[in-house]
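Hi R.,

Here's the input for the fe (ii) ion complex you asked about:
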Amino acid sequence: MAAVNNAMTADFLRSAYGGESMAHMRYLIWAELAEKEGFPNIGRLFKAIAYAELAHADNHFKVLGEQKGDFTVPAGAIFGVGDTVTNLQGGIDGELHEIEQMYPVYLETAKFQNESGAERAFHYALEAEKIHAKLFQDAQDLAKQGKDMNLDTVYVCPVCGYTEVGGPEDNCPICKAKSSIFKAFE
Ligand SMILES: [Fe+2]
Ligand SMILES: [Fe+2]
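And here is the predicted structure with fe (ii) ion in place:
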């Protein structure tokens, strides 16, 4: 396991760990609400993406490796218990923040500081979040019409959080892991 040598990259890893941990939990909460509202497939999408965020949190945590200690971790977190359309907007906003602001900056910092483990973890998350934003948008377009998604099995790569509806392809397009290890949400 690569050590992290630079304080700023370590701070970013801890913050990203915090953000992903909260996204994981928030999506599980919103999944339950979607199911109660009569959108079981949107609920399943939330659960699948929650698992992808767990993979991201796991990567960030493990890259920090030997950096033990007690830290206060500032991290972006969206709050709100609403209807599914509103909760999906929270999902879209959170993913877009990660795609447009957070991960590009974290990734460039990791590159600049020659932190290869962090660079990989941030790259994996950035690429997966792009898919999540799109899937949440598709879900919201339907939910606005009062419709659930027509959703095939959702596959999630446990290494990088790549998320695919249907398929899967032979290898993960982000991290090249064998798709036989993907977790299926059906
Ligand atoms: Fe995501
Ligand atoms: Fe992957």
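One thing worth noting: The mean pLDDT is 96.

Cheers,
M.
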